[in-house]
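Notebook entry, cofactor series.
This is the third protein in the set we're modelling with a bound small molecule. For this one the ligand is zinc ion. I'm keeping the input format identical across the series so the outputs can be compared line by line later. Sequence and SMILES below, as received.
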Amino acid sequence: MFEKNKRVRLKGRALSRLNSAIHGRDHDRCVVCGAWVHPSVKFHHEPCGINKSDEEQKGVVLCAVCHFQRHNGKNSREIRGRIEAYLDNIYGKC
Ligand SMILES: [Zn+2]
Ligand SMILES: [Zn+2]
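Returned structure with ligand:
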């Protein structure tokens, strides 16, 4: 059975479908700056790192600039906050 805190790992077609679903929800726009992002660009996991999970409510579309900043920029925390606020706004806090 499905465990509540289990991380989901998808690959192949299932992962492509998830990427399309996230792009559809975000209208192919970076959720931080609004730039258009090509549908083939892979979504960003939030949270990322060891807690990442391939689920619609744990992924967002980011443009290359914001994605780089999220992972490597000095404003990474600010960007993370904006992504979390965006997801909370859609799914609510859990
Ligand atoms: Zn952006
Ligand atoms: Zn990422």
